[in-house]
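Lecture notes, continued. The same structure-token format from the folding unit now serves as the input rather than the output. Read the line below as a description of shape only.
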């Protein structure tokens, strides 16, 4: 027998199952989810009939997605599953597996509800292998999606998959208890990896051995590795960039080991789901057990419910009570599980690590409930439940745009002067200044103009004895380029202090306020795909402001990344962003009122984010007490304000380094959808160009040294310090800077960990250091520098037409 898609099928009879109060039809059409086609039903006599033949369209009323009241007559199972894609597998008489898909689930269920279907005998069995997409709304049905969801869905958080692990044949269940279990599952809040029963319990109840467990790899077609990314949200109308999903699990869950191994490159394919991303939501109790080398209990969320809804002392009390009552599936050394987590990070770069108690204790949304997960990039810490889905409204600030020329006086060390060039020897006397002359001596300064059309120049001098001066550096702007001379042996501090640009905090403050006001306009005027997202966004109004180009700012100012001056500037930048964002939010609250859930939040008590951090002891640059009084008087328009994101794409558009990270290399190859191209540190290029050393030979040398200049003995030690890459900077310094800025980040930050060598012990120490520092995100991705790489060969390409190079 052939189905409508031309594929053979060996279904011997129809399988229809009855749910109390509803009737459900299964379709045997083997088509991918998201393709709009007519649905067929395999009848009892082995023939196909279209749904239009079974239920004429003129007899059916199709409610619009916004008409939620039209669904009130459906029971909880169907109401919760509307708009979700379900992948079911049915065991038939010949032990063949027929894959069945719901394409247009809303219309299909509504039609099936009005069709009288005969219930089959009780011995019929069904195997559940479901993919419940917690946030795929009905909107995609109306848009006639063909392979990708519409762009309107990009506003949704992309971590809304509730669970991934299922079981495999020959485990069978009758439909009635299965349906009840599905209803129980849907009552659990979304955004967490929490099945009603873990694999151990399900297999034990079915009398099956643990070895039958597999991780469902989300295949739609049996023979093709079609993963969840094929169903993901497209970030653009052309569908060029698929969506991605992050799964979060707490380490007390009985399936945590299967969860950790799901992204491994080796092992049984049926136990892998590599296109997903995984994160651990770690409570402090687990870290304490690992540190003490104690025993850790793995529990089933069905036998030991409620743990994922608690944090802090309440979680520890409940967890210890379950341990005393013996409500755990198994126990194992906490360090054994910890080593497996760290090993998987070195092997696959994941799972992410976020510290649950720190995320909740330092959240301004703690009055709403326990936050149970983050997003795909680990910087969003927002509350969600089954009634409201958190939405992140993000924007990043290009920090290099706040650099201005250093023309300010500082402690009377710098003076501006106008030099007039006379065509012949001329004596100029300023009689009115004679009364203030304390000492008179000759001063000779020779200025070298690099180009005849030079427009500006600046010379720095310092008095070394009573009767002579020594030149420190000379700055000349000529034709839009800047050239500097610095005598051999002269201290770099002078060039860094006087010749380099300075960071304009006032401009950053003003820019941040504009960003906050613009993001509030986005919240008000956005088109929301489902009411849960609109409800959450308008009620809590969270925004997330990030940065890009921090390493560029340090390079422009000739500051090594971990220099004390750089760290001070770094702290001031993030304090300024937080202060400006809060100022703009209060100004909006004066006009439009505070956000709806403001009452009971830490802000309503006048507590800023750094007030929630018990170890905060940094000096503050801005007037926070006046702002605190305004917040308590008028409230704030936004519940959350700062969330530094990776900025991987937007920073490339503006030519900046990503977010707050150091350079990974001073010259590297970047691959995008448009092709491959080299990216060079423009500040190093400009310095080498001024020295007359920017040529093909230097480029080849950079490629050979993998973008590092630390072995270049002919380059000054100061410049080698400035242009160190992330592999050459102490990871502890990177974590210390993350700790210093986290006081002014009320959400979290996408913090990558870079290891120059594979060391589980070193990575473990870094995680514990981050945890004890109180960071929310302990780790985004773990990047390990490869020990061996392919040889770098450079070839001069023939000149080609750029118009044809695509």
């Amino acid at each position: 027998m052939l189905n409508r898609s031309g594929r053979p099928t060996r279904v011997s009879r129809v399988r229809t199952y009855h749910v109390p109060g509803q009737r459900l039809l299964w379709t045997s059409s083997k088509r991918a989810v998201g393709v709009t086609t007519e649905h067929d039903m395999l009848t009892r006599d082995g023939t196909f009939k279209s749904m239009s033949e079974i239920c004429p369209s003129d007899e059916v009323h199709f409610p619009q997605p916004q008409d939620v009241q039209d669904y009130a007559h459906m029971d909880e199972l169907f109401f919760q599953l509307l708009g979700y894609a379900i992948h079911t597998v049915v065991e038939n008489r010949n032990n063949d597996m027929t894959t069945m898909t719901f394409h247009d689930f809303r219309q299909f269920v509504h039609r099936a509800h009005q069709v009288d279907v005969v219930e089959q005998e009780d011995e019929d069995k069904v195997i559940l292998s479901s993919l419940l997409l917690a946030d795929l709304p009905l909107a995609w049905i109306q848009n006639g999606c063909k392979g990708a969801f519409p762009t309107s869905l990009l506003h949704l958080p992309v971590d809304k998959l509730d669970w991934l692990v299922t079981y495999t044949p020959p485990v069978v269940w009758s439909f009635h208890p299965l349906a009840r279990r599905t209803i129980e599952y849907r009552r659990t809040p979304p955004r967490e990896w929490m099945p009603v029963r873990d694999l151990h319990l399900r297999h034990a109840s079915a009398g099956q051995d643990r070895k039958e467990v597999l991780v469902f790899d989300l295949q739609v077609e049996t023979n093709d590795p079609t993963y969840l990314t094929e169903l993901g949200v497209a970030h653009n109308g052309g569908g060029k960039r698929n969506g991605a999903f992050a799964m979060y699990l707490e380490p007390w869950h009985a399936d945590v080991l299967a969860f950790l191994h799901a992204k491994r490159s080796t092992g049984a394919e049926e136990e892998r789901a590599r296109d997903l991303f995984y994160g651990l939501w770690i409570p402090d109790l687990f870290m304490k057990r690992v540190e003490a080398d104690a025993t850790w209990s793995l529990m089933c969320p069905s036998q030991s419910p409620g743990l994922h809804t608690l944090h802090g002392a309440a979680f520890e009390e409940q967890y210890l009570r379950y341990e005393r009552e013996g409500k755990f599936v198994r126990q194992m050394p906490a360090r054994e599980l910890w080593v497996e987590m760290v090993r998987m990070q070195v092997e696959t770069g994941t799972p992410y690590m976020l510290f649950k108690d720190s995320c909740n204790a330092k959240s301004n949304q703690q009055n709403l409930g326990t936050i149970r997960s983050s997003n795909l990039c680990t910087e969003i810490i927002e509350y969600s439940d089954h009634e409201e889905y958190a939405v992140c409204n993000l924007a990043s600030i290009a920090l290099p745009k706040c650099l201005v020329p250093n023309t300010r006086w500082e402690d009377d060390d710098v003076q501006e002067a106008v030099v007039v060039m006379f065509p012949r020897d001329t004596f100029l006397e300023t009689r009115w200044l004679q009364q203030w002359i304390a000492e008179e001596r000759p001063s000779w300064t020779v200025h070298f103009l690099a180009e005849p059309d030079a427009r500006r120049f600046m010379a720095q001098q310092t008095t070394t004895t009573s009767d002579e001066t020594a030149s420190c550096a000379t700055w000349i702007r000529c034709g839009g380029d800047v050239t500097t001379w610095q005598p051999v042996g002269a201290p770099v501090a002078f060039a860094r202090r006087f010749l380099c640009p300075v960071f304009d905090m006032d401009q950053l403050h003003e820019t941040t306020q504009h960003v906050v006001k613009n993001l509030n306009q986005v919240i008000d005027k956005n088109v929301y795909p489902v009411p849960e997202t609109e409800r959450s966004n308008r009620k809590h109004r969270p925004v997330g402001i990030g940065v890009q180009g921090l390493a560029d700012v340090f390079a422009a100012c000739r500051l090594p990344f971990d220099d004390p001056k750089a760290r001070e500037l770094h702290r001031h930048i993030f304090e300024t962003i937080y202060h400006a964002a809060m100022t703009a939010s209060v100004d909006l609250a004066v006009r439009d009122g505070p956000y709806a859930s403001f009452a009971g939040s830490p802000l309503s008590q006048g507590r800023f984010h750094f007030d929630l951090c018990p170890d905060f002891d940094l000096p503050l640059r801005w007037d926070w007490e006046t702002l605190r009084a305004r917040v308590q008087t008028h409230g704030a328009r936004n519940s959350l304000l700062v969330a530094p994101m990776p900025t991987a794409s937007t920073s490339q558009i503006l030519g900046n380094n990503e977010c707050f990270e150091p350079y990974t290399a001073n010259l590297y190859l970047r691959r995008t959808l448009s092709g491959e191209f080299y990216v060079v540190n423009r500040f190093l290029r400009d310095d080498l160009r001024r020295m007359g050393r920017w040529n093909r030979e230097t480029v080849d040398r950079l490629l050979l040294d993998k973008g590092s200049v630390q072995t270049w003995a002919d380059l000054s030690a100061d410049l080698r310090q400035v242009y160190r890459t992330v592999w050459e900077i102490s990871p502890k310094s990177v974590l210390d800077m993350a700790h210093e800025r986290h006081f002014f980040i009320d959400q979290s930050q996408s913090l990558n960990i870079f290891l120059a060598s594979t060391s589980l012990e070193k990575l473990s120490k870094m995680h514990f250091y981050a945890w004890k520092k109180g960071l929310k995100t302990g780790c985004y991705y773990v990047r390990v520098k490869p020990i061996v790489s392919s040889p770098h060969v450079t070839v001069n390409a023939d000149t080609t037409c750029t118009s044809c190079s695509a």
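Point for the exam: The chain has a mean pLDDT of 69.
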